[in-house]
Automatic annotation (TrEMBL):
<protein>
    <submittedName>
        <fullName>NAD(P)H-dependent flavin oxidoreductase</fullName>
        <ecNumber>1.13.12.-</ecNumber>
    </submittedName>
</protein>
<keyword id="KW-0288">FMN</keyword>
<dbReference type="GO" id="GO:0016491">
    <property type="term" value="F:oxidoreductase activity"/>
</dbReference>
<dbReference type="InterPro" id="IPR013785">
    <property type="entry name" value="Aldolase_TIM"/>
</dbReference>
<keyword id="KW-0560">Oxidoreductase</keyword>
<keyword id="KW-0285">Flavoprotein</keyword>
<dbReference type="InterPro" id="IPR004136">
    <property type="entry name" value="NMO"/>
</dbReference>
<dbReference type="Pfam" id="PF03060">
    <property type="entry name" value="NMO"/>
</dbReference>
Amino acid sequence: MTIKFKTRITDLLGIEHPVLCGGMMHLSDAKYVAAVANAGAMGFISALTFPDPKQLKDEIQKCRDLAGNKTFGVNLYISPRDDANSRLDNLLSVVRDENVAVVETAGGNPGFIVPLMKEAGIKVIHKVPAVRFALSAERAGVDAIILVGAECGGHPGYMMVGSMVQGAEGPQKLSTPVILGGGIGHGSQLTAALTMGCEGVLMGTRMLISEEIWAHRDYKQRIVEGTGLDSVVVQTTVKNHHRVLHNETSEAVLELERQGIKDYESFSHLLSGSLAYKAYVSGDTDQGLLDYGQSACFANEIAPVQQIISQFMDEALCAANRIPTLLR
């Protein structure tokens, strides 16, 4: 009999493994998310990747066809800039009407989204970079919290708290189930997170080299060749810390920051998501702010999602089997 982990998150989401693969802008589409679901984990379609409501509806239905009876979610990024949330507003009704199982919210306060989703019977998991924000989300009524540490690709928060601290502090302070993210890419980290009181883990960078991710193979090969140490954190001068691959674009942003420049217009041409999209299409990783975390050190081979998740769970069980040998 195969041993499996059973946690509050596997029960809450009806998934086989306590593993979530976060929604990634431009990359988390139906094909990838369905592959994650079929591997026994939970994936999230990135809603803003499909800004037209009809596009998002079609993508959800496509994922449902590919995933069969397996559950999956939708990622809803809440911008700290109110003017940018108009795109999201147009997609919320699609998520409700399609009755997805769960949404992963991130960025701004999810307070206005929680009741909309709960009315439709949709669970809400909110991603934050520190326990202080998790407490606010818990009061807002979310079903679970993702705590990400400073090692994560994307936005680790301006306080830059490490994952080992987040993983131990979160379950102590929160009654809501905690999922640990940031630098997660080896199964032993799942076992460690569970022993600290977390209910699961979140992966992002580790999954970038999945065969089901549509991005150019040269882009994936750059991730394989990376160590995770070749990441940099930009936009620190405006407290919008962003961990990305160190390339020409990120170096240009760092240079502006060294000059003390803070106004958005000076950075806007470098921050554009269209540059990252072009990199995914062309494989030219010198351009664009490409989310890239320290767990890239574990992404050593382009492989199918099923193989990545299976290996991850084998590593977790191996680590769990070691624990009894250490007890006296």
